[in-house]
Amino acid sequence: MDLNTYIKERIDPQVKWYDKKSKSYKRYFFAGNIFILIISTLIPFLTSFDEPLKDFDILKYSIGFMGVLITVITGMLNLFGFYQKWLLYRTTSEKLKSEKFVLTLMADRLDEEEQLEWIQKLEGIIMNENQTWLQESKSKTSTNKKPK
In angstroms, what CA-CA distances link 65 with 50, 58, 79? Predict the structure, then answer.
């Protein structure tokens, strides 16, 4: 496989995948935090109506439900690690783009052995991300296990 084919068939799809994933995790992270911000801002506002609306139990239940929502969303943001995955995938994507750019500029001047070194470097970036993801997954699994 020549260098251009490798870039087209291996690196370009990886960059696209990491870009797509980092954007979606960024969206999840911001949406969750904006929702928490809005709901947590509404709680003190709604409690100010407690005296005029003391006969309305729906207000008390609504405020309690909002507190539950904040807790659940905060837990989900932490559990699924949207922020960490966003940064990890974004960093990997940018590293791949940078190395691909330099490799593309130098491709004509590299012999076959030097091209293989660059390919190993690119594969190392992908492998490093995979290992980081695996370590984070294992650490989350081990922290969620109940002691015997």
Answer: 15, 10, 21
